[in-house]
From TrEMBL:
GO biological process: L-phenylalanine biosynthetic process from chorismate via phenylpyruvate
Keywords of this entry: Aminotransferase, Pyridoxal phosphate, Transferase
SUPFAM superfamilies tied to this protein: PLP-dependent transferases (SSF53383)
NCBIfam families: PRK09257.1 (NF006719)
The organism of origin for this protein: Cereibacter ovatus
Needed co-factor(s): pyridoxal 5'-phosphate
Transferase in keyword set: yes
Pfam families: Aminotran_1_2
Family that this chain belongs to: Belongs to the class-I pyridoxal-phosphate-dependent aminotransferase family.
Transmembrane segments: none
UniProt name for this protein: Aromatic amino acid aminotransferase
Amino acid sequence: MLTALKPQPADKILQLIQMFREDPRDGKIDLGVGVYKDPTGLTPVMRAVKAAEKRLWETETTKTYTGLAGEPAYNAAMVELILAGAVAADRVASVATPGGTGAVRQALELIRMAAPGATVWISNPTWPNHLTIVKYLGIPMQEYRYFDAATGAVDFDGMMADLAQVKAGDVVLLHGCCHNPTGANPNPVQWLAICEAIAKAGAVPLIDLAYQGFGDGLEMDAAATRLLASKLPEVLIAASCSKNFGIYRERTGILIAIGEASGRVVTQGNLNFLNRQNFSFPPDHGARLVTMILDDEALCADWKAELEEVRLNMLTLRQLLAEALRAETGSDRFGFVAEHRGMFSRLGLTPEQVEKLRTDHAVYMVGDSRLNIAGLNRTTVPVLARAVADVLRG
Ligand code: PMP
């Protein structure tokens, strides 16, 4: 049986990590994988997470199973963090999932069950896992234009023209904030138009919210999600705690399904069913830490303060990099780096230039020229800017 298996294509980012590890050069710079790094290059455990873990260790009396949907207190705290009362509670069903990826997967399975044949519309480009999971599940897919490589901004006209083709019952997958991989995001006026286009089409948005707090702050980053959730009859939200709580390996996420109040019990039952079929009970440790933090005033204040440091560090690096690139290249071509939000920006370099960055300068970024801003620090910003200027000269 196993001999019938075909090799899977290698994961490009994991390949990049391996190459970086094996590179013996001093001063090599890793801008590949999407984890936050502090100015010393570490991905620390957040203070509030450490404190909650200590408290949990002292007070936890059992590790017996939780509910299929997770602990109700976790779901309630996450729904509040994301929606802040934008939607009546009796319209909201939710399940805890293994990370944001688990939430995306469960959302797509729910879509396949509820609307077999519905097309899922995906931004071009998007996080590669969106494409592979949709394909793996055999769900019809179409891309909508999203990014204008010439300006580094959202190709809003192209996006709207493509969204006009969306049919009733289709699903539009959106990044709630901090678009991965481009870093370019619609402004509030554009979000309103996107919301209207989806309403007009009679489609359902699936919002992937993996970076709340990494862009313009916890509230602003949830604004588009809240807008869509409050205006549209049905909305799916797949959210991750990996980044904003720094608990990547704990696998903590949530799928929220908003619909008519009269259908909530059936929707909830189907979410529970999907968890049951795929893994039974969702992981609890990370969810419990998140709940303890969100439900405790002091821990929550400390978490928010540290998250804000993280966000501001990335914003400062963006400004420094935009300035350094302007100085080194003598052009405003990379001004968008300061406008982008979140952990990533797509620089718009060719695959050959990205390869030259690696071979000549020991700078590692994904082949589409996506770089992890948090992989930089004040010392490496000018090094990167000089390297980019060098590869642009050819
Ligand atoms: N969606 C997007 C757009 C992401 O970038 C990520 C993380 N790379 C996720 C979802 C999910 O992350 P995780 O499963 O680690 O929570």
